[in-house]
Amino acid sequence: MTTPVRALAVAAGCAGFSFLLSGMFVPAGRARIAGTVVGALPMIPAVLFRIARRGERVRKEQAGYLFQILLSRLSVGEPLELAFGSACVEAKRVWGAHSPLASGLQRLVSDLGSRAPLSQAITRFSARFSCREAEPVLAALAMVRSVGTGVTELLRTGQGMVAESIAVEDAVAAESAQRSTEACVVAAMPPVVALLLGRLAPGYLDPLLLSAFGAWVMAGLYLLSVLSISLVLRVVSGPRPIRTSPDRTVRTSPDRLVRTSPDRLVRTSLDRLVRNKEDGVRRPPALARWLAARLPTGYRVRLERLLSFAGSSDADRVARHMEKKMTMCIAGAALGAFPAAAGGSVWWIPLLALLLPLLQDRDLKRRVDRVRDQILEGFPVFLGLLSAVLHAGIPLSNALDVCLSGIPHPTSPFGRALTNIRAEVQAGRSASHGFDRMASQTDIPEVQASLSLIAQFERTGGHELLSLLRLQVPVCRSLNRNAARKRAEQHTVYLLIPMFLSLLVILAVAGLPALLAFRP
């Protein structure tokens, strides 16, 4: 969490760095002050984002240390309440008294000393500590503690989740270390080249610095250099996590549930679960429905599966997709008519008429890939928590509440499907049908197998199925690690943009003075 004092310190540091950097490109006084202000603007959010990612990493390490201390104290027979006090002492010694972990544990120990309930004390600690990986484990800790069994297993699960998250970050950093180093070196070259030319070749940059045209060129090169440095800092810090709106639920009566989320689920009775957004929605035109019915069977089945996996629950989703294709085809033909009417080739009309529908398929693939990444990121967390909580003897309805609070993207199609299952369980239905439905809509074999095991466990129970569920956790974690590496490789491609900008600035600083010197 970025405090105002830290934000002001970062702004002052970025302004100072921009002032030093501007002296190599803009020597004038007023122009240098203006360049300092403008140059600091793109750097401040990049530095704040990098500091925030570093703070998240430190909190993950502190959460893993907390779980390790609690496990060691519980192994010697110490109660959980006293184990938190011992962890507070150790956290002050290792991380410092003002660290987020030590300050949060100090508040937790104070709440427990004043006879506050364990659940309330842990809730305050989670809000103060603010670690996404530790929040669901701490929320389930009070629930499992009331049962009396499974605390050790839950803490082991939490430690494994934190360790896996840190391992994924290390693997991603190792994959992109070489490209990040090269980008940092190239981004630092423009000011170095400008400084060396000014010191080793006095007067070489005078055609740029002394003329009005050259001054504007140098100001533009300075802004490009600042932008390239900011982009490198932003890309090296890692991809930005997906921000989703919270899933706010409003209960109006025991038999009625209205959720103000993107899918707007409304339960009007215990036996009926309908979608509000489908009421009053017009059907696709007859031509789109005719085309959807005439599609080849294999293509239609694959398209239905992709649309369902991307989160579309409309019964006419294929026809609606064909309607969009028709619209894009007509729009492409209309756009191609303009260059054809201006004397260009008539091939622009069929070319754009085919290109825009292909871009629509590309957009569908991108949405499917995003949903798959969200599932691979959230499902190992869900499965690990679910197996640990069920092992402690917690009912499935309460276990789903804990697991939903721990998944990274609660408003993703995967999170909404779990929310629907929880609503069905609260309405008195069996959760096995919901998990079977999720398994049929998922095209990841390992996730399908795990969901089928959960459905079978709901129907029959048994410790053997629970053991099989726990064996599926490392398999899903390995899939998440491979997906994270793939995303990191795709994300590092963006480093080519600041590297190109830096090379452009280097060529301009080194070559433009010579060209201007020979100008008559």
Give the SSE layout.
Layout lengths: L3 H19 L6 H47 L4 H16 L4 H14 L4 H12 L5 H13 L3 H25 L1 H24 L5 H4 L2 H25 L11 E6 L2 E5 L4 E5 L2 E4 L10 H8 L3 H13 L7 H25 L6 H44 L4 H9 L8 H14 L4 H11 L3 H16 L2 H29 L4 H22 L3
Antiparallel strand pairs: 1-2, 2-3, 3-4
What would you say this structure looks like, in words?
It is a single chain. The chain has about 525 residues and is mainly α. The protein has 20 helices and four strands. It has a four-stranded antiparallel sheet with strand order 1-2-3-4, with helices on one face. Strand 3 (about 265-270) and strand 4 (about 270-275) form a beta hairpin. The longest helix is centred in the first third of the chain and has 47 residues, at about 30-75. The protein is flat and about 85 Å long. The model is unreliable at about 240-280 (pLDDT under 50).
Task: Record keyword descriptors for this entry.
single chain, 520 residues, mainly alpha, 4 strands, flat
Structural class: mainly alpha
Number of strands: 4
Percentage beta strand: under 5%
Helix coverage percent:
over 70%
Largest sheet: 4 strands, antiparallel
**Mean pLDDT across all amino acids:** 79
The order of strands across the largest sheet is 1-2-3-4
Low-confidence stretches: 242-280
Q: How are helices and strands ordered from N to C?
A: HHHHHHHHHHEEEEHHHHHHHHHH
Shape: flat
Q: Separation of termini?
A: 58 Å
> What radius of gyration results from the CA coordinates?
29 Å
How many helices does DSSP assign? 20
